[in-house]
């Protein structure tokens, strides 16, 4: 007989249910409004772990003052149906009061890695992410935790935090899931109207153009950034915030691409801010 999925809110309920889960336990942290990208993480966790916990928590501390937390899309009933159909054991849906009770004043901050890119555009964002993810790790105590490559800097920052704070778990990074037209799956795509949705494929086109140039042995990082800028500029509905060609590990901007590198960008399509990235693996140029 299949077990029914537990849906719990309080920390006490979580802790007592956690004790009865078969090991190893996999955790998929989410903010809900699940799409194929999240579901690919859940499927991988179900394949690799004896038990799977999914957290759904729209974390207020990772939203800036100008970012609309209240408007973040939510659909708990649909999320729960999807998770149950994938064989998830436990869904934890804490409230903001459970995560940040009165008097809360403890934060987890990764330093240099959070300075550039998303960190520069969204001050305080990663402090909110690392704090809530550390709390999720402590509460669920998973052997493996699953994140999407779509949020490349988030992945780098969480891996750094897990190493630096000795969390006894493996951070598993899963590939970006894309629509057939290349648009990376994101909860924020829900804000796009049909015309904007089409325009938003320019992120994929810009990244692909730079990646192709790299495959044709272009190693000048500024030339790759220029290709991305020019592709974005040709789409009237898109407004570039940044493009980057950075070292994969340190996220520092490169002059020359020699090892593993990250192409990334943030672009407004209408009022919706979209991010996307591709990894470059350099073979030695003869
Ligand atoms: O990627 C997200 O959805 C969030 O940043 C995370 C990791 C669930 C933390 O709130």
Q: What helical percentage do the residues reach?
A: 25-40%
What is the overall shape? globular
Ions and ligands: pantoate
- The CATH architecture name of the largest domain reads 3-Layer(aba) Sandwich
Largest sheet: 6 strands, parallel
Number of helices: 10
Q: Count the beta strands.
A: 9
How large a portion of the residues is in β-strands, by DSSP E?
15-25%
Spatial order of the strands forming the largest sheet: 1-4-3-2-5-6
Stretches where pLDDT is under 50 for at least 5 consecutive residues are none
List the helices and strands and how they pair.
Blueprint: E1 6-8, H1 11-18, E2 25-30, H2 36-48, E3 51-56, H3 76-85, E4 90-92, H4 96-99, H5 117-121, H6 125-140, E5 144-148, H7 152-164, E6 170-174, H8 194-199, H9 202-215, H10 221-233, E7 238-247, E8 261-269, E9 272-280
Parallel strand pairs: 1-4, 2-3, 2-5, 3-4, 5-6
Antiparallel strand pairs: 7-8, 8-9
The protein binds pantoate (PAF).
Pantoate (PAF) binds at residues 29-31, 59, 62, 129, 132-133, 151, 154.
Describe what you observe in this structure:
The chain is an alpha/beta fold and 286 residues long. It folds into two domains: 6-174, Rossmann fold, CATH 3.40.50; 192-281, 2-Layer Sandwich (Pantoate--beta-alanine Ligase, Chain: A,domain 2), CATH 3.30.1300. Helix content is 36%, strand content 20%. It is built from ten helices and nine strands. The protein has helices spanning 11-18, 36-48, 76-85, 96-99, 117-121, 125-140, 152-164, 194-199, 202-215, 221-233; strands spanning 6-8, 25-30, 51-56, 90-92, 144-148, 170-174, 238-247, 261-269, 272-280. Strand 8 (261-269) and strand 9 (272-280) form a beta hairpin. The longest helix has 16 residues, at 125-140.
């Amino acid at each position: 007989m299949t077990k029914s999925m537990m849906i719990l809110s309080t920390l006490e309920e979580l802790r007592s249910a956690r004790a009865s889960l078969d090991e190893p336990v996999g955790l998929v942290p989410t903010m809900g409004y699940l799409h194929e990208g999240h579901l690919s993480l859940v499927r991988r966790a179900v394949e690799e772990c004896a038990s799977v916990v999914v957290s759904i928590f729209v974390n207020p501390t990772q939203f800036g003052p100008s970012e609309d937390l209240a408007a973040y899309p939510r659909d708990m009933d649909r999320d729960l149906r999807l998770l149950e159909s994938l064989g998830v054991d436990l869904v934890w849906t804490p409230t903001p009061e459970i995560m940040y009770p009165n008097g809360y004043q403890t934060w987890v901050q990764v330093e240099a890695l959070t300075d550039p890119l998303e960190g520069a555009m969204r001050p305080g964002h990663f402090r909110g992410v690392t704090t809530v993810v550390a709390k999720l790790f402590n509460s669920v105590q998973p052997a493996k935790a699953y994140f999407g490559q779509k949020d490349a800097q988030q992945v780098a920052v969480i891996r750094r935090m897990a190493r630096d704070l000795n969390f006894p778990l493996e951070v598993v990074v899963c590939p970006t899931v894309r629509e057939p037209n290349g648009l990376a799956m994101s909860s924020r795509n829900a804000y796009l109207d049909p015309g904007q949705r089409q325009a938003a494929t320019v992120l994929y086109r810009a990244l692909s153009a730079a990646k192709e140039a790299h495959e044709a042995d272009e190693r000048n990082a500024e030339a790759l950034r220029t290709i991305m800028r020019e592709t974005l500029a040709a789409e009237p509905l898109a407004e570039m915030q940044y493009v980057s060609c950075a070292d994969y590990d340190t996220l520092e901007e490169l002059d020359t691409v020699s090892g593993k590198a990250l192409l990334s960008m943030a672009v407004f399509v209408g009022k919706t801010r979209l991010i996307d990235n591709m990894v470059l693996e350099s073979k030695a140029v003869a």
